[in-house]
Design a protein that fits this description.
The chain is built from 3 helices and 4 strands; from the N terminus they run ββββααα. The chain has 128 residues and is mainly α. The strands form 2 sheets. Strands 1-2 form a two-stranded antiparallel ribbon. A two-stranded antiparallel ribbon has the order 3-4. The relative contact order is 0.04.
């Protein structure tokens, strides 16, 4: 006696993957033969509200197309410029800190005297 179920046959789908025939969604056709249903899911179209408002206010289609095309390019360019400026500011800060640290560490009594002299000069200029 064989108590095992019958093995389901394996088929290859149009997309190249394999599946068992007992796992396919079946729809009974008028002929009584099960049919495979292929459902296509589409993405929603992009929102065109801003373009419609611009066109409704009298702006030409060329201006709207230019805004759609050049808008992201402008954002990308400004982001790149901001990143470059941030990097330069960080580099300037590190170099200034390093320079001050080096001068303090190798500066002798002459440097301290010069700093005192400069402080006295500034105080005397404020009093005037």
């Amino acid at each position: 006696m064989n108590h095992l179920p019958e093995p389901a046959s394996v088929i290859r789908l149009p997309d190249g993957s394999y599946t068992y025939t007992d796992q396919l969604p079946a729809v009974q056709s008028p002929l009584g033969v099960p049919q495979v249903v292929h459902q296509h899911i589409h993405q929603a179209p992009p929102d065109r509200t801003l373009q419609r408002v611009a066109l409704g206010s009298g702006v030409g289609a060329g201006a709207v197309a230019a805004g759609v095309y050049f808008g992201p390019l402008l954002v990308g360019a400004l982001t790149a410029i901001a990143a470059n400026l941030a990097l330069l500011a960080f580099l300037a800060t590190v170099l200034a800190w390093g320079g001050v640290t080096v001068v303090r560490s190798i500066g002798g009594p002459g440097g301290k005297a010069a700093a005192k002299n400069l402080a006295k000069t500034r105080k005397s200029l404020r009093r005037r």
